[in-house]
Amino acid sequence: MDNAVYVGLSRQLVLRRELDLIANNVANADTVGFKVESLMARTEPGAPASNAGAPRPVKFVIDGGVARDFTQGSLFSTGSDLDLGIEGEGFFEITTDEGPRYTRDGRFRLDELGRITNQAGQPVSGEGGGEIVVNPEDGQVKIGPDGTISQGENPIGRISVVRFDDLSVLEKTGDNLLRNTANLQPEAAPDVRVRQGMLESSNVKPILEITRLIEVTRAYESITKMMESSADLSRRAVERMGRAN
């Protein structure tokens, strides 16, 4: 296999990964708090497949990781007391068996113990790390812009909203949750506003993603044709050499 085919194959693999990301963005265009993702491609030098006229080194295309755009999506009203949207840079903290997780998805509910949880039944962390327990018999739950939860005139806790100085430490773990992959500890976000009865929409722009999908598909097809042409040239060269002998 010659160098052009090797380089083309490396580019194809990256384009396939990019297609997967774009498809995932489109699929999550209506997912609460979802953040659009894109692939960071880069080149890496490598030894050529053959030395005949090949540059040294040959530059291959590789997957450089996923970039996530944390731009805030628009807030929309739901009217549900336990639907919460974040206005500003911050995350709700969720307690899981694997440790704390972070999310912008504020679709919360009460479990059978009266705890405020996410859709998967994992407790929402209160200020200081404890669980928030609500007694349904004490009246309507009201949540202020600072995250303070009260029933009647009695405050019962505060939703923990935190921020990270470096958002690159956050990694997806599924269920719209993020994991802190570094020793960098989150900080309180006192200037963030919590909006009761609202949710944050995905920041995916479907038109842009469809346009990207078309561009990447065309690039993939172009690379495929180039590789087929290179392989055809190699085949013809071998046939000519065979006839000459």
Rounded mean pLDDT is: 88
SSE series: HEEEEEEEEEEEEEEEEEH
- With strands numbered from the N-terminus, the spatial order across the biggest sheet is 6-5-12-15
Beta-strand content bin = 25-35%
Molecular shape: elongated
How many structurally independent domains? 2
Description:
With about 240 residues, the chain is an alpha+beta fold. It folds into two domains: about 5-70 and about 205-245, no CATH class; about 75-200, no CATH class. It has two helices and 17 strands. The protein has a four-stranded antiparallel beta sheet, with no helix packed on it. A three-stranded antiparallel beta sheet has the order 9-10-11, with no helix packed on it.
In brief:
Helices cover 26% and strands 31% of the residues.
List keywords for this structure.
2 helices, three-stranded antiparallel sheet, 245 residues, single chain, alpha+beta
Describe the secondary structure blueprint for this structure.
Blueprint lengths: L2 H25 L9 E10 L11 E11 L6 E3 L6 E4 L3 E6 L2 E5 L5 E2 L5 E2 L23 E3 L4 E4 L2 E5 L2 E3 L6 E5 L2 E4 L6 E2 L4 E4 L1 E3 L5 H39 L1
Antiparallel strand pairs: 1-2, 3-17, 4-16, 5-6, 5-12, 7-8, 9-10, 10-11, 12-15, 13-14
Helix pairs in contact: 1-2
